[in-house]
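Q: Two folds, back to back.
A: First:
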Amino acid sequence: MSKKGKKEKQEGKVLEQAQTAVLEGGSIADPNNGNYPEDGREARPKMSRKEFEKALEPLQVELVKLQEWVKYTGVKICVVFEGRDTAGKGGIIKRITERTSPRVFKVIALGAPTEREKSQMYLQRYIQYMPAAGEVVLFDRSWYNRAGVERVMGFAMEEQIAQFLKFTPGMERLIINSGVHLIKYWLDVSQEEQEKRFQERMTDGRKLWKLTTMDGLSYSRWYDYSRARDAMFAATDTEESPWYVVDSNDQRRGRLNCIAHFLSLISYTEVPREKVKLGKRQSKGDYKEPNYPYRRIKEIY
């Protein structure tokens, strides 16, 4: 078998494994098929970076195939990523987008609302980012802020929260009926793992920007967030628009499982693509390199 054939076989095996896992309620490469004793999961060997990158590559190849199919067919996909602080939403989104086109895979990560946005209809802020034909929109937090942080931190009144939980399933039904594939993920993380990641943010200069005063408050209100999550699931985990839960305590496995599951939900196919040929370079003719004082940067590496 050729090298290309072996690679295609490997990619097909990854997708088949992901689809089987979805049907059986487990996760990719999960020998326990999602069945763990009580609340905790059995300890598994840490996945090395090399193992992770090897498993990630065929998934990213499939993401590119999905991208080309979305462009070709004009499909609209919206993916919502929710979860507690440090759950790993940004990490999964980064792995999805690092080999895809930002013109197709668009990341929406909104900051605090402006005074004008606060005066608008609540969902107005988010609806404007819904995908057009040939786009995949990834929400790093979404309209579900109202059911989570706004509820726990007192940024919204109980009446507003009750209305949100009551009418959101209908709103999502309208989105789906408009032709959008709506997919919702909740990233699950334990108290112990969350604390470990908060400590990393405090000591790693590359992660300081992720640490805010709000994070400190959310850390101390673990069970308020648990109650808010439970109410959100009870109201918005519907057959039409279900919540899919990702175990993200093991970050690398969580990323792989989530991407594989996402791919398994879309019935995409590889689309025809015109083979690109490099043309013959033109002759130099009378062109001469100018004696120009280019401001070249200093090479320090």
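A: Second:
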Amino acid sequence: MNFISNIWKHPKTTAAGLLIAIVSVAGVLSQQGLSLGKAGTGTVVSLVSALATALLGLMAKDPQTASEGASAQGNTAKLGAWAMIALLLPLPWMQGCTAKGVAQDIVNWTPSLQSAVTTVDSTAALLAPADAPIFAAATAGFDAASNLLVAEAKAYLADPTAGALLQLQTMIVTLQQQVDSALLQAARIVNPSSQQHALAAIQGVGTIVSAILSLVQSISSKADVARMAADSGVKLAAVEPYLDQAFAAKIVAAHYGERVELARAQVAQAEEMQISAGF
């Protein structure tokens, strides 16, 4: 009976809880590839999730009168926190529910990837003479692997077949492994300034590779993801100590046009999902 009475005593809190549950379930359905039909250019699942999030945001911004006192202010703060939680649940690269939408998102990342690789190519000149050859050797494969990944991404967008997806899966894992191996090698550089420049340049590439990996993961079967993870000899957990999430969040926020705070939580969520999958 307390359960029933609490619903009547705290209708706003109850509604917030239901909306959060809707967003959570919609996120799971989206990640499993369940769309429940089309809604305009999107899907029913994405539409329901967006509406629930919007309603939760409106509730969090509902003005309070002065007579409601500190308790009302506390409730508003809680609703604001819940709204933020709901916004953090879906990753920006997991919301395009069609293979074509995801493929387009992957291709949209490729100019940033090529720019980041160009930055890597010019970083050796900023390092101490003894460190430049180490860095150059660690990142030697970036140009070729990134160019192949861009080509495979465009090929999959043009013709999203199982064979094209397999090639895309192979190339993203190949580049991911090169980046992670390079991070471990750069971490051994003793000169503090050289190490800082090297890690930042490599992570610029790594952040984009991680975003693309998450996109590829979202359109791959469980068996394919397991195979990709098995091909990842260097695991994300091994390089995580050398990653700067604030730096990664700025890259993601700039690409998707969102707040850095939101992007930072999404980056952390993506990393956790990849680790859970075995990467």
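Q: And?
A: Confidence is low (pLDDT under 50) at residues 60-73, 76-89.
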